[in-house]
Amino acid sequence: MSGYTGGTVANPTYKQVTRGGTGHYEAVKIDFDPAKISLDEILHKFLRSVDVTDAGGQFCDRGDSYRTAIFATPDQIAPAKRAISKAQSDLGRAIVTPVLELDVFYMAEDYHQDYYKGQGFVLTRFGPKRQSEAYQLYRDACERDARVRQVWGDSAAFAK
Question: Is 126 helix (H, G, I), strand (E, B) or coil?
């Protein structure tokens, strides 16, 4: 579920969060069945699917709301810190992704849910596009996959 967390404004909107001043990060809430995938595996894949060395945002998206973080429940904090230590050891570089205690998670607007496969039209710098096409154009133009591969090499998760 796409949403926002870590800030001080109740029920924020995408525009408020990305404009700044709310303290919120854009975030994803993952509900999972530990019989199918472990927390450790989720953390491993997440850390290797982003640029954990960039404190200023991700790829083309700059600013506080685009920084990486792991928002964890109290029982997830220790495993998250272990995952970061392991990833830092594997990478051989400092990781700037913090582990923060999850407080309140606010669900993002409906059009943000599964945006990458959405069929609604949005206005982009490339003209009007379906959400799925807009996301792929963003991913390519911002060289997201290339940067993840540059950081993680063969350990990069989800890079095409």
Answer: coil
Calculate what percentage of the chain has a pLDDT beyond 70: 100
Q: Using an 8 Å Cβ cutoff, are 124 and 134 in contact?
A: yes
Domains of the chain plus CATH, in order, are 2-113 (3.30.1060.10)
Residues 117 and 119: their CA atoms lie apart, in Å, by 7
CA Rg value for the chain: 16
Q: Is 129 exposed, middle or buried (0-12, 13-18, 19+ CB in 10 A)?
A: middle
Q: Which residues contact 101 (CB under 8 A, 6 or more apart)?
A: 71, 72, 73, 74, 77
pLDDT digits (tens, 9 = 90+) for 32-87: 999 999 999 999 999 999 999 999 999 999 999 999 999 999 999 999 999 999 99
pTM above 0.90, yes or no: yes
Q: Give the separation between CA 8 and CA 54, rounded to whole angstroms.
A: 24
